[in-house]
Amino acid sequence: MNENMPPPLPSFTPPKTSTLAIWSLVMGILAVVLIVICIGPVLFAIPAIICGHMACSRIKHSNGQLAGTGLAIAGFVTGYASLALLLLMVPIAIPNFVKARNTSMQNACINNLRQIDAAANQFALEKHLKAGDKINFPNDLTPYIKLNSQGKIPSCPAGGTYVIEKVGDLPTCSIPEHKLPQ
To answer: Any idea where the domains of the chain sit in the sequence?
Structure first.
């Protein structure tokens, strides 16, 4: 009976999945997910691309000992995709950041103008001045306004200069877009 038994088959060991391929895919996915904060592509996409290409090369030269070509390809493709998305988002994001900064500076300037106007009104009431009387800006208003850390009336964040000459006039900024609403 032993004579008719076929010889035992050699044991088959499945190829091991490349660790680099797995890391490539993980970093590629992180790069795509974290693209919103604009740092994901830089921190994760480039390593995903490098690991993906290295894994493909090692798998190709392993004579069937390593598997995971699909994972490696998916890793470097997601890395390239997140870099491409970043390149598309940058031209959109930068002008919006600049606009938000300018709007913020304009709002801060208008707040300063409101404080100067309130200080001018308080000064006029206390000194019994009438509309049209001269104001020596900034010296007359300094006691009536909250000063900045240098002990001066707050200045325009965009570099403009403030002017108010008479009681009843609205204070103005040298930057045309920075003005109090009527």
So the answer is: 15-97, 104-173
